[in-house]
Structures are given as structure tokens and as C-alpha cells.
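Supplementary Methods S3. Complex input for the iron/sulfur cluster-bound model.
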Amino acid sequence: MNKMTIDMPMVAQCNATDCAYNLEKKCHARAITVGDGVHPGCDTYFMSSGHVHEKKRMAGIGACKVSQCRNNTDLECMADSINVGRSGNDITCMTFMAR
Ligand code: SF4
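Predicted complex, serialized as C-alpha cells:
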């Protein structure tokens, strides 16, 4: 596998414990994508009874499609870290701040 090193904001915490990438309220995807252009939902959420095994891998935010967030520049998240959690039926970026 080819590897590259890039700076990304981290997912500090995620309460979506029924997601396959979630172990102990931490996201262990390599990188998540946030947003559908309007709502800051987690696009990577995948409800599953099975979970990933790699606890050392911590998720970053690979892309965010919510340009209306104050932390968003050029469709990338510039926050230091974000929290993800449930908002009604949605799994949402809780760090979202409307411009
Ligand atoms: S803080 Fe804003 S820019 Fe960063 S992931 Fe959340 S919604 Fe996107």
C-alpha cells in the first residue's frame, strides 16, 4: 500500500455506538466525510452489529460538504477536532456552527 501523511481534524468523540466504526464512543474509520451539502450529517455512519477491530486508528475528517459552517474553508473542515453524535434520527457533526 502506498502511504501519505496529511493533516486532518480529528473526530474526538462519537456517540453513535451502533456504527461499525465505533468502539467505546470513538470513531475508528480512517477518515469520515461530513455533510450532504446542507445538513452536517456523518456520511460514513454504517449501522451494524459487527464492529471494526483496530482501536489504535483514530478518525480524521477527510472532507466536509457543509460550506455554511464557520469551520469550513473550501469544503474542508478547519476545526481542531469535532464531536459527532445523534440529533433526532440523524448522526450529526455537533461542532457545526452556522455562519
Ligand atoms: S465543524 Fe463544520 S466544517 Fe467541520 S466537519 Fe463539522 S460541519 Fe463540517
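The chain is about 0% helix and 35% strand. Residues 10-93 form one domain.
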